[in-house]
Amino acid sequence: MNFKSIIPIKEVSIKELFSFKMSFSNVTMAMITLGLVALFTAGAITYFIEGHHAYNVTREHPWGLIIGMYVFFVVSSTGLCIMSSIGHVFGVKEFEIIGKRAILGAILTICTGFLVIALEIGHPVRMVIYNILTPGFTSAIWWMGTLYGLYLCFIIFEFIFLIRNDHKWSKIFGLGGLLVGIAAHSNLGAVFGFLIARPIANGVFFPIYFILSAMITGSYLLFLMYGFRYKMNFPKEVEDMLVKLAKILGLLLAILMFFEIWRMLTSIYGGVPGRAEIAKHILMSPNFLVGEVLLGMLIPFIIILVSKGKNIKGLVWASILGMVGIFFMRYDLVHDTQLMPLQLLKIREYQLPPSLVEYFPSFAEIAISIGGIGVCLLVYYFAEKFFNLDYDK
Amino acid sequence: MARYAMALDYKNCINCKACETACKEENGVLLGAQNHRIWVGTKEIEGEFPLLNISSSNFLPSQCQQCSNAPCQEVCPTNATYYDEHGVVRVDSDKCILCSYCMTACPYDARYVDDRTNTVDKCNFCSDTRIARGEITTACQATCPTKVRIFGDLDDPNSEISEVLRTREHFSLKSYLGTDPKLFYLT
Ligand code: SF4
Ligand code: SF4
Ligand code: SF4
């Protein structure tokens, strides 16, 4: 029994590993990827030299861009996992073709998420030790972390069985991964929802919203993955699948917009201190209006609506905007939660009376966060060389 | 076991900041604007000159409220934040992973990052120093010139703090959150 008989990987020579068709889109992608990886490296080096001081987080705004980016990656992972399960767990025929590619994407995005967060929390190794030795069962972070660890194991097994074409076991692990993933992801929402100190985040909204927006993220990513894989020349079965996916995406976006409207209404109505003024602030901010609403929801939604889901190429392009929107959703979530100052009076002579807390990410934070995407793309490139990710009938 | 708490006769505070200084000295808190376990908030005088409302201005000394139902403890994934035998909320810097969850969860902005250990720190009623030496004082309380601060054991009916909480009106900050603080402001 050797490794290859367990996990069927392709024989790839070093030369093949680094050679690809020199088309415009491939070369552009390669340059973007390498640029981002370089950026990530620069950010990580800055962090290793300067420690936490390389970040602009403060005692009033302890969570910064990197936390947002961690959420971004794990939302992507859960989203891909949920969307892929439509096919090979629930048996919807058209969606069976996405299984391998989506699950591989789920594995890579969550690993990137872990990588990014390891550069943010102060003592990642200690975390692994004390998560086991002295678990804090009342902590949403504990549940989120533990469940995501389990989830990663499940989807790795799911992937292995998928590429072995063992549909019985891949289905079992797929179902396990789906359930644990949803539990983990709603717990990630609860990390914010449990903050009684922050009325804008507190409540049941986030655990549910996280699942919904994960499915939307997963759909965008599938459009991007397939758009790039087939360079917009889709075979029939892929096109059928993407049209179906577009219709599901349209429905999900409609629900999301409905959710957001009610979140804003409940936040503003009654003028609860610390909640209403933040909600109004969010409603006025370009991050929300342009980033989340326009790019993240409206443009893709309108394309789906107008073309009845048939404009696949348009949707691939819109998915890029959609992902930018999703990024802003994550960043705003983290940032807006902390906008309201908690100290009641001004505390130092030279400080102005409490106004909204200010934060803008530092170079290291931006480099690690945005660069993380490059790391993910790079590993995806290699994975594509080693595994056969296309559907074999 | 004692159940330590503090009452603050805050209207006597003259904003001399002796307590802040004493705290830094006693507990080795590093210098710098972000590093402080305790602070004194200032409420500006209301009104436009010359119609000023002098009595509207006051000083509000504050610090970790030593919640009996502490959100920071609830959210800590590794139980690095814990209640000690005196009901004081403390941080075990060997277990803290600096996830900063407690910092976002504390409704009083009472926590900061200590650069020496790269972990979260906050007021612990001088548990590492004075209480550990067997004294029943805190540095801020011992140094306050106008006797704003009264520190002691709630479970001892004869302690000064029990006496003062029995006889005087008091409130605690953001009590509507159900955190049940052990810092009491005397009116
Ligand atoms: S005031 Fe903040 S740090 Fe202190 S016990 Fe309460 S929640 Fe924890
Ligand atoms: S920063 Fe430290 S004390 Fe605070 S929640 Fe995380 S592990 Fe616990
Ligand atoms: S030492 Fe006493 S009077 Fe001076 S600032 Fe502190 S609490 Fe106020």
From TrEMBL, chain A:
Principal subcellular localisation of the protein: membrane
Coiled-coil residue windows: none
InterPro entries reported for this sequence: Electron_transfer_protein (IPR052049), NrfD-like (IPR005614)
Entry keyword Nucleotide-binding: no
Keyword line: Cell membrane, Membrane, Transmembrane, Transmembrane helix
Localization (cell): Cell membrane
Record's keyword annotation contains Transmembrane: yes
Transmembrane spans: 27-49, 69-90, 102-121, 141-163, 175-196, 208-228, 248-268, 288-307, 314-331, 359-383
GO cellular component term of the entry, any: plasma membrane
Annotated membrane topology: Multi-pass membrane protein
A Pfam family recorded for this sequence: NrfD
Signal peptide: none
Family: Belongs to the NrfD family.
Record protein name field: Molybdopterin oxidoreductase
Organism: Halarcobacter ebronensis
TrEMBL record, chain B:
Gene Ontology molecular function terms on file: 4 iron, 4 sulfur cluster binding; metal ion binding
Keywords: 4Fe-4S, Iron, Iron-sulfur, Metal-binding
SUPFAM superfamilies in the record: 4Fe-4S ferredoxins (SSF54862)
Stretches assigned to the 4Fe-4S ferredoxin-type domain: 4-34, 55-86, 87-116
Stored Pfam families: Fer4_11
Name used for this protein in its record: Molybdopterin oxidoreductase
Organism lineage: Bacteria, Pseudomonadati, Campylobacterota, Epsilonproteobacteria, Campylobacterales
